[in-house]
Write a structure and sequence with these properties.
By secondary structure, this protein is mainly β. It is built from 1 helix and 15 strands; from the N terminus they run βββββββββββββββα. It is 11% helix and 34% strand. The longest helix has 27 residues.
Length: 253
């Protein structure tokens, strides 16, 4: 049975949970049956208004997000409505890097928020693959020299399903978000409707896009069986003590 959608319109219980799975991870298949078992959250999207080239209305009003990981690789599925499939359709995930607080608008320095590096995972339909990007403010977006992110999109019945994947940790700690299972990371979303207008330009491009604010992401930690181990150890010690006591009592008799 598919997991029930849990709308996330307040910041009180807003997170994407990536459950730990055994076996194959659907990192390259947005339509895999395994996604139906993943917890799903829905996040509101709004027009980008922080950068001078703005947009007043967007196609994607919300995105549904699921996550899974196998202890080595994390996969995140983005799902949203789009009336038409177009080459310029695109989507992205954004994460803070390290401990520096960053604004969700490309890490742009703003009042009481220091400009910090952000890690952006980007996908465009015509390219058909993922891109690993970084930024520290408007106008600083650029691809990383390393490319660890993979992505694949499938369009079905007016809905885009795009899966992004990457190792939980990488060697590039200054540029990439590092995911430690059991802890929270900041995550944001962006979507572009690439429908071609009468001018020949895409409806949404560049900073003209649907965006979200920061929400939360967590990869589940492996189960902790230590309490059970301690309980078994206590039982074993008690049994051992009882056996010793019984032997002594028999010798005494």
């Amino acid at each position: 049975m598919a997991a029930e959608v849990q709308p996330a319109y307040s910041q009180q219980s807003v997170s994407v949970r990536a459950a730990l799975v055994k076996g194959s991870l659907p990192a390259d298949d947005p339509t895999a049956a395994a996604w139906a078992t993943a917890a799903v959250s829905e996040f509101p999207m709004s027009p980008q208004v922080h950068w001078p080239v703005r947009i007043t209305d967007v196609t994607a009003k919300s995105v549904k997000v699921r996550g899974l990981h196998d202890g080595t690789t994390v996969a995140i599925l983005l799902e949203y409505s789009d009336p038409s499939e177009d080459p310029e359709d695109a989507a992205a995930l954004e994460f803070m890097v390290g401990d520096t607080k960053a604004h969700f608008a490309h890490g742009q320095p703003m009042a009481q928020v220091e400009g910090g590096p952000v890690n952006i995972w980007y996908w465009k339909n015509k390219d058909g693959k993922g891109a690993d990007l970084g930024a520290k403010g408007f106008g600083t977006l650029k691809p990383h020299a390393h490319q660890d992110v993979k992505a694949k999109g499938v369009y079905q019945g007016g809905v885009w399903k795009v899966v992004f994947s990457r190792p939980l940790s990488t060697e590039h700690v200054a540029e990439d978000t590092q995911f430690k299972p059991g802890t929270f990371a900041s995550i944001a979303f962006a979507v572009w409707d690439g429908k071609k207008m009468e001018t020949g330009q895409p409806k949404e491009k560049g900073s003209e896009k649907a965006i979200s604010s920061w929400w939360y992401f967590r990869a589940d930690a492996p189960p902790d069986y230590s309490p059970y181990m301690y309980a078994l150890l206590a039982v074993a010690l008690a049994l051992g003590f009882e056996l010793v006591l019984v032997r002594r009592l028999k010798k005494g008799s």
